[in-house]
Design brief:
It is a single chain. The longest helix has 22 residues, at about 95-115. The chain has twelve helices and twelve strands. Helix 2 packs parallel to helix 4 and helix 6 packs parallel to helix 8. The strands form three sheets. A seven-stranded parallel sheet has the order 3-2-1-4-5-6-10, with helices on both faces. Strands 7-9-11 form a three-stranded mixed sheet. It has a two-stranded parallel sheet with strand order 8-12. It is globular and about 65 Å long. The protein has a domain at about 5-185 and about 225-250 and about 290-310: Rossmann fold, CATH 3.40.50.720. By secondary structure, it is α/β, with parallel strands linked by helices. It starts with a strand and ends with a helix. The chain binds nicotinamide-adenine-dinucleotide (NAD) and 2'deoxy-thymidine-5'-diphospho-alpha-D-glucose (DAU). Nicotinamide-adenine-dinucleotide binds near residues 82, 101, 183 and 192.
């Protein structure tokens, strides 16, 4: 039995994780705490919002008094911490927002858990969801393992690295029962169209340019979001306290090859002539400090806990495109309002 505080459940990964836990564990109670920033959207959870073991609470993880009251009210036995500012480009224009939410917010959550669980850490879990970006940037060869030294290079990854360090500090100093996982790039339904894949799908649908930073040679290791949620489930239940697990797809693509594959599949699905969407590809100014390559070695997760990704990329990307084509209303809602302002600033009205 668990009563779980799941933070950031209205976001991309958080909504998939919430859905998985609510459906798979009817005996658990899941309290989704989310501030509903531009990235948080309760539409992502419509299918489970009335489930008996689910509750939504609007609130901010940086508000320690509020967190203390929430812990007192619900007697949580576990935390699944997803809430964060998550977009690298936004961290370049507004680093303080990332320091506030990712560092101060995680610190506040740790403190609230430590106080609530003081004297009885038995069967408690503080699970921190993190990223492979904390390890920095790889050259053409090699992989990130759990032993790779941290070398974050963007305000986003530096804030996530700081939060990881703080989680480990609470484990060593106060014996808080923590677990951490560091995952590679996710893709799938409900992905906010500021990130490469949903942004390109949205722009192909609307016949707009597909902005490729630099030469499109940067490499990312893509994992279907439901596979990430499944891996978190495995680590939550079977992973060791105090340990870190890398999660990845062994699925590396250069950005340009990935976008060309998207174009190919979308031309087919939209009944357009072959090569139509590729003509939208537009090379734009590179991201400042753009990490060249991320690639995860997930051997520990495979050998210790038996987890491997379930989906091949071609199938995952096809499912993802189908979802966006079938959910045009969701896309319209999230791209109205402030999105347009962000888009124009980021891409200089292209
Ligand atoms: P997201 O931006 O889609 O969602 C973040 C959620 O957190 C939103 O619902 C937002 O409203 C909420 N939030 C933000 N600030 C908050 C605050 N102060 N208080 C409460 N809620 C707040 O992010 P995502 O892509 O789903 O990422 C979730 C987590 O997974 C993050 O910690 C991220 O670092 C990590 N991660 C993401 C990826 C990826 O590819 N997206 C890969 C590895 C790890
Ligand atoms: O590796 C895990 C990380 O993956 C997560 O921790 C982050 O939260 C998540 O946003 C993601 O970070 P990236 O920066 O890799 O994702 P993004 O989709 O922003 O960019 C993917 C690649 O595409 C990257 O090399 C930059 C490039 N890109 C991105 C955008 C938005 C473009 O070429 N053009 C674009 O318009």
């Amino acid at each position: 039995m668990h009563t779980i505080l799941l933070t950031g459940g209205a976001g991309f990964i958080g909504s998939h994780l919430t859905r998985l836990f609510v459906k798979k564990y009817p005996q658990y109670k899941i309290v989704n705490l989310d501030k509903l920033t531009y990235a948080g959207n309760l539409e992502n959870l419509r299918d489970i919002e009335n489930e008996a073991n689910y509750q939504f609470v609007k609130g901010d993880i940086t508000d320690l008094d509020f967190l203390r009251k929430l812990f007192a009210a619900h007697q949580f036995t576990a935390v699944l911490h997803c809430a964060a500012e998550s977009h690298v480009d936004r961290s370049i224009t507004d680093p303080l927002a990332f320091i506030t939410t990712n560092v101060l917010g995680t610190g506040s959550l740790l403190l609230a858990a430590k106080e609530a669980w003081a004297g009885d850490m038995e069967n408690k879990i503080f699970y921190h969801i993190s990223t492979d970006e904390v390890y920095g940037s790889l050259g053409a060869a090699g992989f990130f393992t759990e032993e790779t030294a941290y070398d974050p290079r963007s305000p986003y990854s530096a804030s996530k690295a700081s939060s990881d360090h703080m989680v480990r500090a609470f484990y060593h100093t106060y014996k808080l029962p923590v677990k951490i996982s560091n995952c590679s790039n996710n893709y799938g339904p409900f992905h906010f169209p500021e990130k490469l894949i949903p942004l390109c799908i949205h722009n192909i649908i609307n016949n707009k340019p597909l902005p490729i930073y630099g030469k499109g040679e940067n490499v990312r290791d893509w994992l279907y979001v439901e596979d990430h949620a499944a891996a978190i489930d495995v680590v939550f239940h079977n992973g060791k306290i105090g340990e870190t697990y890398n999660i990845g797809g062994h699925n590396e693509w250069t950005n340009i090859d990935l976008v060309k594959e998207l174009c190919r599949q979308m031309d087919e699905k939209l009944g357009k002539e072959k090569g139509t969407s590729e003509k939208l590809i537009t090379y734009v100014t590179d991201r400042a400090g753009h990490d060249l390559r991320y690639a995860i070695d997930a051997t520990k997760l495979k050998e210790e806990l038996g987890w491997i990704p379930s989906l091949q990329f071609e199938e995952g990307i096809s499912k993802t495109i189908d979802w966006y084509l079938a959910n045009s209303e969701w896309l319209t809602h999230v791209t109205s309002g402030d999105y347009q302002k962000y888009y124009n600033q980021q891409y200089h009205n292209q």
